[in-house]
Amino acid sequence: MIYAFKTNEMKANALNLGELLKELRGDEGLRDAAKRMNITYSYLAMLERGKDRRTGNPIKPTPETLQQIANAYKYDFYKLIEVAGFSDDSFYNSLLKEPFAHNLTLQQWYKSLPYCNEQDVEKLKIIWDVIQKGGDS
User: Fold this and answer.
1) Which of 36, 71, 74, 82 has the most CB atoms in a 10 Å sphere around its CB?
2) In the predicted model, what is the mean pLDDT of residues 106-110?
């Protein structure tokens, strides 16, 4: 069952969190799946329904719970938070706390700066000063 999701990203993206969790669980019982995740079966049932049955409010699992689910189903955590609709929330997506989170190339360049030699950093400072002045120098 899990293999089908890994080969069909379009299907996973079309599902909401509850539907995805049901699909990933497959024929496994709620109690068994919840036990592997270290959550209660009633909470897993609410996650699959997408709302709290007592209040009718949407369920918003913590990043830790989503990580437990991802581990139990051997499913990519970042894909899970995306399906859950939390990929743009830095509380859920720690990658957003990184500088230049939406530009991997720029992020890699930025992270390499501490390893540059002092002369290169001085050149970058001069270039930055020119940019700040509007390029008129």
Assistant:
1) 82
2) 85
